[in-house]
């Protein structure tokens, strides 16, 4: 009798625990970071699912013609941005509508995309997959291809207890891999941990940052991840009004998600449309390029002006936010 019931009991316990509900990967971050806002109870990090997500992230199987992967626009060596390209590039030489944002420290973000139209990272990947100029594919077609692959059948079995690929499972695997992108190895972080000291110029730049930038780019994530109108004139070709394009509410006109100041050396060009190639151009904008409008951020009603020395100091501090260990970490790269 015992021999007959043991397998049944094991299977029941296995199902009750939830094969993919056992977390064996911890998100590691410093004590001065806030608690992540992502609910890991609903999608616990599991090493096999992270590995499935890595495979999917680097696989062009997600695109209609098998030429574009997530990594095509989010390069690990560029802090998962598309450095050097002001707009994203997709299948058949298609050009997207916005600059590919850097993706890291996602567990602390409640909304995604420049306009915040996606409110759950577990479904975020559907947007580029379905976009006609990015991956140009239907998720159901992707799932059919995954279910024909022996390799993916094995990977889905290891992650979910059976070999069946579904859209939900694929999206959760992708989000698990991306949630592990934690950038906390900059000089700033070493200073916070009392393992290093700022130079005089970096310290002076830090004070300038706190006085002029911190209300939108707050420590330690260096963004509130809220939305703001930073006075950029509308590009007449793109005609992009940010959150207003999706909500049509006047209060959101020209408001875009505030990006982090971390890893700026790896994520150029800057702004939602990549219009500025250098940080000097960004500072020029805040000094003499701000366009007044009803939704302009209150902090920008007056120009932000720095002397030549102050610019140098501020840029030195911003460089101290670069995380070279993050962009070279093999845990995030293709196997």
TrEMBL record:
Keyword Membrane in annotation: yes
Transmembrane segments annotated in the record for this chain: 7-23
GO molecular function, one term: peroxidase activity
Main subcellular localisation: periplasm
One Pfam family matching this protein: CCP_MauG
Every Cytochrome c domain range: 48-150, 200-322
Keywords on record: Heme, Iron, Membrane, Metal-binding, Oxidoreductase, Periplasm, Peroxidase, Signal, Transmembrane, Transmembrane helix
Protein name: Cytochrome c peroxidase
Organism: Chryseobacterium taihuense
Lineage: Bacteria, Pseudomonadati, Bacteroidota, Flavobacteriia, Flavobacteriales
């Amino acid at each position: 009798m015992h021999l007959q019931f043991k397998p049944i009991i094991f299977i029941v316990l296995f199902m009750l625990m939830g094969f993919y509900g056992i977390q064996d990967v911890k998100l590691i971050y410093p004590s001065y970071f806030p608690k992540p806002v992502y609910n890991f109870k609903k999608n616990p990090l599991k090493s096999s699912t992270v590995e499935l997500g890595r495979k999917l992230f680097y696989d062009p199987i997600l695109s209609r013609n098998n030429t574009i992967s997530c990594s095509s626009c989010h390069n690990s060596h560029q802090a998962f941005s598309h450095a050097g390209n002001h707009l994203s590039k997709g299948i058949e030489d298609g050009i997207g509508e916005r600059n590919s944002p850097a993706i890291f420290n996602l567990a602390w973000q409640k909304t995604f995309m420049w306009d915040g139209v996606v409110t759950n990272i577990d479904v975020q990947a559907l947007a580029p997959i379905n976009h006609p100029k990015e991956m140009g594919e239907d998720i159901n077609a992707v799932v059919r291809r995954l279910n024909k692959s022996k390799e993916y059948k094995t990977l889905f079995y290891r992650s979910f207890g059976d070999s069946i690929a579904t859209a939900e499972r694929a999206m959760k695997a992708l989000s698990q891999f991306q949630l592990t992108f934690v950038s906390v190895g900059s000089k700033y972080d070493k200073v916070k941990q009392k393992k290093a000291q700022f130079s005089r110029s970096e310290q002076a730049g830090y004070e300038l940052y706190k006085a002029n930038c911190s209300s939108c780019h707050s420590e330690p994530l260096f963004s509130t991840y809220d939305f703001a109108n930073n006075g950029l004139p509308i590009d007449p070709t793109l005609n992009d009004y940010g959150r207003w394009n999706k909500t049509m509410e006047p209060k959101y006109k020209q408001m875009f998600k505030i990006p982090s100041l971390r890893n700026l050396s790896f994520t150029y060009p800057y702004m939602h449309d990549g219009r500025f190639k250098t940080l000097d151009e960004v500072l020029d904008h805040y000094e003499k390029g701000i366009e007044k409008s009803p939704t302009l951020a209150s902090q920008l009603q007056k120009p932000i002006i720095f002397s030549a020395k102050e610019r140098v100091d501020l840029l030195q501090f911003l460089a101290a936010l670069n995380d070279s260990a993050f962009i070279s970490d093999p845990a995030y790269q293709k196997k």
